[in-house]
Specification:
The complex is a heterodimer of chains A (276) and B (340).
Chain A (H helix, E strand, L loop, with lengths): L1 H6 L12 H17 L1 H25 L12 H21 L1 H9 L1 H6 L5 H23 L12 H26 L5 H17 L12 H9 L1 H13 L9 H24 L8
Helix pairs in contact in A: 2-7, 3-4, 4-7, 4-8, 4-9, 4-11, 7-8, 7-12, 8-11, 8-12, 11-12
Chain B lengths: L29 E10 L2 E7 L2 E2 L4 E5 L6 H8 L7 E6 L2 E2 L4 H7 E4 L11 H11 L4 H14 L15 H13 L5 E5 L7 H18 L2 E6 L2 H4 L4 E6 L2 E6 L1 H6 L4 E6 L3 H15 L4 E3 L2 E6 L2 H11 L6 E5 L3 H9 L12
Parallel strand pairs in B: 4-9, 4-10, 7-8, 8-9
Antiparallel strand pairs in B: 1-2, 1-3, 1-5, 5-6, 10-11, 12-14, 12-15, 13-14
Chain lengths: 276, 340
């Protein structure tokens, strides 16, 4: 017996890591990886800016919404919240492509084999992607005054809040889509199928009030519609909106919770199939 | 070192063995109990029951598709088995995965390091995932890097390191939380002989100095030779269990191979040898194989009896591959469906 005690296994000196530290570390990794890849930094700032200037000024000459003389009736102003949401949308969802590369490169394996609760993994990854998306959206707000957006602490605070919420819900959506996938090409295909209709049907390009029957119905079902409206409420209080800011914020918040819960459920599926 | 003599006392199942964490009491590091796993209707693991003893290097040897990867996934809590149980230090891998994860260090076959981060950053993230932080983590990172000989590389990006060094970072990652059980999946894949030797040296050091119990999967015979004990798997079944020496000496005498001109000739020759010498040869393609004491004398007899039917002869001491052939009736490397 004495020999057995001598070789008895020692126990690792580890406490349960909880949720916050693992989530923080996964979040941090996401951010560090982002700014170490300079091309990504340049790309996500430059392309939406270009898009907004080219498309926005093109459309502005073709038609105008409303017809009043206030600055917000100008199409560039109408288009501005949509442009912000688009930046956020692309960055948020595509940031979760890292989930697929993490899986293929093996990093995810070591995370899944660590004593970390699955909610910490979802939280860390989603907050990481959401932070990147939100930061870009918020930087883009700088152009707001050029098209007559309201500049006040309240407007800025509200816009930032809305951008944070949109970033979170979209990243969580991206997470849920990316989790079961093992190829970035497949992710691209699915996302392209989803992304453009989601954005076009959000009131970013043309108002919900101008849409007819079924399209209007689809737009009202689109959770992004409420995000775009909430942003428009905050930046251009004078503009016509279907819903008030509290309603739009509430719907967006509910969708945040839903997408996060969805991601969490997908990650926690108990299965006899390989986890990664 | 004399792990063979270890008393396999507590092979009876000890469910949960004290909720406060089974220290002191000699719980087995790894214990499989009728472990079974199916992918759809394909059986990947068939009723495996064996245990890894404390502070030994235990090898899991088998060809591709033998179930090694499946077993590794189950032990690393990445997959729930369809039947039976796998326990690590008394904790069930399927029911208490987080308890198991805290005790186990895992080195995957695939790269798990983040190439865009530095060596130290990789270890910092890994430490955070295992509940280490602050000064304690810093000290531990230093210690682990010293152990794998990478102290002066802490600030370098992992992508700038050689393959051998990246493996060492993987090992350091697996060791960051001082696990008492270490699992390594095909650890020497892609390593040159020097790096491979280093790796085994680290593993022995961990076993001897820290009493870590180590499970290594491998498909390489020469690597399996380094293990204290081995389990040989074939098509999901355990075909042999013991130290390399025990397994090899379980074969009586020498291994004799007769090379013939073709499959039919081999079958014919085997039948005639069996008839004449009262032995049971095995036909492996165009080779006739049998085990025999005093192989060299036996060979002369056979050659004299059947001249012209034999194209080549070899007489050798048994190897682990011979053990595999003896237990399964076929070669180690045969075409087996790829495991997925």
């Amino acid at each position: 017996m004495a020999t057995l005690t001598a070789t008895a296994p020692r126990t690792a000196n580890v406490a349960s890591p909880g949720i916050l530290i693992p989530a923080y570390t996964l979040w941090l990794r996401e951010i560090v990886r982002f700014y170490r890849q300079k091309a990504r930094v340049v790309g996500v700032i430059a392309s939406p800016l270009l898009f907004w200037v080219v498309l926005g000024s093109g459309f502005a000459h073709s038609f105008s919404s409303g017809g009043g003389t206030s600055p917000s009736s100008h199409y560039m102003a109408y288009f501005f919240p949509g442009a912000v949401v688009m930046i956020v949308l692309f960055t948020a969802i595509f940031s979760m492509m890292s989930l697929i590369t993490d899986r293929n490169e093996g990093f995810l394996l070591s995370v899944l084999a660590a004593p970390v609760s699955r909610s910490a993994i979802v939280l860390g990854k989603v907050l990481g992607g959401a932070t990147l998306a939100a930061v870009q959206g918020i930087i883009f707000l700088v152009f707001g005054p050029l098209v007559g957006a309201r500049v006040s602490p309240e407007a800025i605070g509200l816009s930032v809040l809305v951008i944070l919420l949109i970033s979170f819900e979209l990243t969580a959506l991206g997470f849920a889509i990316a989790w079961p996938m093992d190829s970035t090409q497949a992710f691209h295909a699915v996302i392209n199928l989803l992304l453009i209709p989601l954005w076009l049907g959000s009131g970013a390009l043309f108002p919900v009030s101008g849409a007819s029957g079924w399209l209007r119905f689809c737009m009202l079902l689109n959770p992004l519609t409420y995000g775009v409206e909430a942003l428009r409420n905050s930046l251009f209080p004078g503009s016509q909106a279907i819903f008030s800011l509290p309603v739009n914020l509430a719907v967006t918040l509910v969708f945040c919770v839903l997408t996060f819960a969805g991601s969490w459920a997908i990650v926690n599926r108990r299965t006899n199939r390989p986890a990664a | 070192m004399a792990t063979l003599s270890q008393n396999p006392a507590s092979t009876r199942s000890n469910t949960g063995a004290g909720s406060g964490g089974p220290s002191g009491f000699p719980t087995l590091p790894i214990e499989l109990d009728h472990l079974t796993h199916n992918y759809g209707n394909r059986q990947a693991l068939d009723n495996l029951s064996f245990a890894v003893h404390p502070a030994e290097i235990f090898g899991l040897l088998g060809p591709n598709g033998s179930g090694k990867t499946t077993l590794f996934r189950i032990l690393s809590t990445l997959m729930v088995p369809t039947g039976g149980s796998a326990r690590i230090l008394g904790f069930d891998a399927a029911r208490e995965p987080n308890k198991v994860r805290q005790q186990t260090g895992i080195v995957f076959q695939a790269k798990s390091v983040d190439l865009k981060l530095t060596v130290a950053e990789n270890l910092k993230h890994q430490g955070h995932l295992y509940g280490l932080s602050g000064q304690q983590l810093k000290a531990r990172i230093k210690e682990v890097l010293g152990r794998v000989g990478l102290s002066n590389r802490a600030g370098e990006y992992v992508e700038s390191l050689s393959g051998g060094m990246q493996r060492r970072v993987e090992l350091a990652k697996g060791l960051i939380h001082s696990p008492s059980v270490l699992l390594l999946d095909e650890p020497s894949t892609g390593l040159d002989p020097g790096a491979r030797r280093d790796l085994w040296q680290y593993l022995r050091m961990l076993r001897d100095e820290e009493g870590v119990s180590i499970l290594v999967t491998t498909h390489l015979m020469e690597e399996a030779e380094h293990c204290d004990r081995l389990a040989i798997l074939n098509e999901g079944k355990l075909v042999a269990l013991g130290s390399p020496l025990e397994l090899k000496s379980s074969i009586g005498g020498d291994v004799v191979l007769f090379e013939t001109e073709g499959d039919e000739a081999a079958t014919r020759l085997a039948a005639r040898i069996a008839d004449r010498f009262q032995v049971q040869p095995v036909v492996l393609g165009r080779t006739v194989r049998l085990e025999r004491r005093d192989g060299h004398r036996f060979v002369t007899g056979v050659v004299e009896a059947f001249p012209g039917e034999i194209e080549g002869i070899s007489v050798a001491k048994p190897s682990l591959e011979d053990v595999f052939i003896q237990r399964t009736g076929h070669r180690f490397w045969t075409e087996v469906k790829e495991e997925k």
